Amino acid sequence: MNRQMKRAQRRQGTTLDRARATAPARRNQAVADRKRTGIRQFLKEVRQELKKVLWPTRRELVTYTIVVLVTVVVLTTYVFGLDVVFSKFVLDVFA
Q1: What is the pLDDT of residues 43-67, one digit of tens each?
Q2: What residues make up the domain containing 69?
Q3: How far apart are CA 77 and CA 63, in angstroms?
Q4: What b/e sequence results for 9-44 when a residue is b if at least 16 CB atoms lie within 10 Å of its CB, and e otherwise?
Q5: CB of 19 within 8 A of CB of 13?
Q6: What's the predicted TM-score (pTM) here?
Q7: 62, part of any domain
């Protein structure tokens, strides 16, 4: 919230300062109510979540890998070309 909005709220008599003062108290209470879980429970939940993941097939993985490699080669070549052009330009102008 910016300064102008705060001034407008003060003129109208409505401010959010009271709501902001109670928000951290609620947050601290929510944190205190949660029970810590052990490493065994954590790993069990991680395993359950990983079972839900839709893993790519081998064909999709190969396709994605090829796309990434081709993109890297094309962009590297483009940047190299720009570097050569600009370095020749700078050498011609300042040499």
Answers
A1: 999 999 999 999 999 999 999 999 9
A2: 54-94
A3: 21
A4: eeeeeeeeeeeeeeeeeeeeeeeeeeeeeeeeeeee
A5: no
A6: 0.50
A7: yes
